[in-house]
TrEMBL record:
<dbReference type="GO" id="GO:0043190">
    <property type="term" value="C:ATP-binding cassette (ABC) transporter complex"/>
</dbReference>
<keyword id="KW-1133">Transmembrane helix</keyword>
<dbReference type="InterPro" id="IPR030802">
    <property type="entry name" value="Permease_MalE"/>
</dbReference>
<dbReference type="Pfam" id="PF02405">
    <property type="entry name" value="MlaE"/>
</dbReference>
<dbReference type="GO" id="GO:0005548">
    <property type="term" value="F:phospholipid transporter activity"/>
</dbReference>
<feature type="transmembrane region" description="Helical">
    <location>
        <begin position="80"/>
        <end position="100"/>
    </location>
</feature>
<keyword id="KW-0812">Transmembrane</keyword>
<protein>
    <submittedName>
        <fullName>Membrane protein containing DUF140</fullName>
    </submittedName>
</protein>
<feature type="transmembrane region" description="Helical">
    <location>
        <begin position="6"/>
        <end position="24"/>
    </location>
</feature>
<keyword id="KW-0472">Membrane</keyword>
<feature type="transmembrane region" description="Helical">
    <location>
        <begin position="45"/>
        <end position="65"/>
    </location>
</feature>
Length: 101
């Protein structure tokens, strides 16, 4: 799914550059190839797997310990989203430092 979204984003950029005339489509392709490193795909897939694990683990934790009525479930899901966002930002920093340096 991550690879598909990357390909759709690249194709969308190419289509916009071709339709709007902001840049020549050949320049767009050359720009992509200029800084392309195959490790970028590996890096993206590693981050995707780690982030998916974080989101599902935190959401499952808060969902499992939700008690009471539907208001408590809503509060637990809000806490899960906030906690997931914070942990993802921290792990993004850690993974970037480990994998790109």
């Amino acid at each position: 799914l991550a690879i598909l979204s990357i390909l759709i984003g690249i194709a969308g950029g190419y289509l916009i550059s071709a339709l709007t005339g902001i840049m020549i489509p050949d320049d767009y392709v050359q720009g992509l190839l200029y800084d392309f490193r195959p490790y970028s795909i590996t890096y993206t897939l590693i981050k995707m797997a780690v982030f998916a694990f974080i989101i599902t683990s935190i959401s499952a934790f808060y969902g499992y310990y939700a008690k009471g009525n539907s208001l408590e479930v809503g509060a637990a899901s809000t806490k899960a989203v906030v906690a997931s966002s914070i942990v993802i930002m921290i792990f993004n920093l850690i993974l970037t430092q480990i994998l790109l340096i």
